Amino acid sequence: MTNDREDKIRARAYEIWQREGSEDGVALDHWIQAQEEVDAEPGADTEESARDPDNLENRPPPPS
Q: Where does this protein have compositionally biased stretches of type Basic and acidic residues (predicted)?
């Protein structure tokens, strides 16, 4: 299942790959770079950080 965030990361990774000369064997590096760039965008919906229990900013409030 894909989502908007993953689509953005995929497109950004492809752009990076093209810009860097379309070299083979660096897909993971480009994916990680793209993920960081997309997640750094203002208003980015980062699913991973929302699920990270160590990230206090995204932790839901305790039950009342």
A: 48-57
Q: Give me the half-sphere count of Cα atoms (radius 13 Å) on the Cβ side of residue 2.
A: 7
**Which residues lie below 8 Å from residue 10, measured CB to CB, with a gap of 6+?**
34
Cβ pair 17, 30 in contact under 8 A: yes
Cβ burial of 36 (10 Å; 0-12, 13-18, 19+) is exposed
30 sits in the region (left: phi over 0; alpha: psi -120 to 50; else beta) called alpha
Measured in whole angstroms, the distance separating CA 58 from the mean position of its chain's CA atoms is: 16
Give pTM, 2 decimals.
Answer: 0.63
